Amino acid sequence: QLGTPISSLMAWVELMKSKFDAEDDPLIAEMQNDIHRLEIITDRFSKIGSKPILEDHVVFLVVKNFIDYFKIRTSDKINFVITGDNQVRAMLSIPLFDWVIENLLKNAANAIENEGTITVNIIENLTKEEVFIDVSDTGKGIPRSKFDTVFQPGYTTRKRGWGLGLSLTKRMVENYHSGQIYVKESELGKGTTFRIILKSSITYEPTTNTGIPRSV
Known about the structure:
By secondary structure, this protein is of the alpha+beta class. It is 38% helix and 23% strand.
């Protein structure tokens, strides 16, 4: 049902570009980005309940692309930082994994009452051939007794909302990406870190003590 209005929006944007000679207008570019997001959201719902197709991606680039989109659509009092390994890869469904990152960033932004920072750190665990994605905020924090409760459907601390964001996030990480997600740490008044664990798609060969790959 979203297909027709999305196509209509695309046509209107193209008309504006030609009529007002606005090919390089940054506002038009952001409108196109929003239309693209609508297409992704439509794609998400078609994937829920079915087995998604996972493709090999550089995790850092996927996360950075979404942060670049998200940060200009949220409060300018929040600073976004992405750090860590920019080479490690994992098998991802971009429409669903973007949704995971979106929910965590929204959750982090809602936890920050005034100014603050949201940091995403990509960590490669060579020993276990895993990727850690830590999403941290400088918000109000979560009581330790609620570390598991936050993932239950209907749990929310906001006056408005259904409390489904983190529940869906957990489902998308665990059921569709065969990963894990949990509250790594939190301190009231200082902030929270959520950790996602995914299997790395990079194959590591054992090495000899000389650093030369051992034949297997």
